[in-house]
């Protein structure tokens, strides 16, 4: 009697190789889709640098959207010239605006309303807009002096006791100056008024 040795058939390895190959192909497709999407959306492109005008359009105060400058002055579509633009400083971290100052030459002297007291001040203005604002202030200085004195003349002696009197007076003067500049030049642009001297006696 002969013993027969029966060898077991080896199991095929093809299904395992197909599964591993399918997983690799699937991973390559997912990675390719992600990279393709990033390229399509411009993720690998350099970020654009915003100009001053583009930053003004996105102003957090909504000035450009409402057609007004930062102090509510309407931006004229027509007029003599386009509205002045804010001047930027070159800074690696972020865009900063360049400040320009102008001190008006002579003192302003006015009586207080209903009082024998007088108020004497020196005034400087600040703007972040271009040189045209400073040029307009110089051009219309006589008219601006008149409106500044009109605002000062409305002050009464009791106003001097208010804690924020000087700030309130500076805002009133700034608004009066911008209104006059808008009348003559279609744009104000004065953002702050400062007192370099302030005397009452």
Polypeptide structure, described:
The protein has 201 residues and is of the alpha+beta class. It has two domains: 33 residues; 119 residues, Tetrahydropterin Synthase, Chain A (2-Layer Sandwich). The protein is built from six helices and six strands. α5 packs antiparallel against α6.
Global structural class: alpha+beta
Residue share in β-strands: 15-25%
Q: What's the average pLDDT?
A: 79
What oligomerization state is this entry in?
single chain
Features:
rod-shaped, alpha+beta, 40% helix, four-stranded antiparallel β-sheet, 2 domains, 6 strands, Tetrahydropterin Synthase, Chain A, 201 residues, two-stranded antiparallel ribbon
Topology record:
Blueprint: H1 14-40, H2 52-57, H3 63-66, E1 88-89, E2 96-97, E3 100-103, E4 108-111, E5 118-127, H4 131-139, H5 141-153, H6 165-185, E6 192-200
Antiparallel strand pairs: 1-2, 3-5, 4-5, 5-6
Summarize the structure.
The chain is α+β, with helices and mostly antiparallel strands. Helices cover 40% and strands 15% of the residues.
């Amino acid at each position: 009697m002969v013993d027969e040795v029966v060898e077991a058939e080896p199991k095929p390895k093809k299904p395992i190789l197909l599964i591993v190959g399918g997983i690799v192909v699937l991973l390559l497709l997912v990675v390719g889709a992600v990279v393709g999407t990033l390229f399509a959306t411009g993720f690998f492109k350099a970020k654009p640098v915003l100009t001053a005008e583009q930053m003004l359009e996105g102003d957090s105060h909504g000035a450009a959207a409402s057609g007004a400058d930062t102090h509510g002055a309407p931006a004229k579509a027509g007029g003599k010239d386009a509205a002045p633009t804010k001047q930027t400083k070159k800074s690696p971290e972020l865009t900063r605006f360049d400040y320009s100052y102008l001190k008006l030459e002579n003192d302003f002297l006015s009586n207080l309303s209903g009082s024998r007291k007088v108020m004497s001040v020196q005034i400087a203005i600040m703007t972040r807009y271009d040189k045209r604002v400073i040029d307009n202030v110089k051009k219309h200085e006589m008219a601006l002096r008149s409106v500044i004195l009109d605002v000062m003349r409305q002050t009464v002696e009791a106003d001097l006791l208010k804690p924020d009197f000087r700030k309130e007076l500076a805002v009133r003067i700034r608004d009066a100056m911008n209104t006059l500049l808008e009348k003559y030049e279609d744009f104000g642009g004065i953002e702050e008024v400062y007192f370099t001297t302030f005397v009452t006696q």
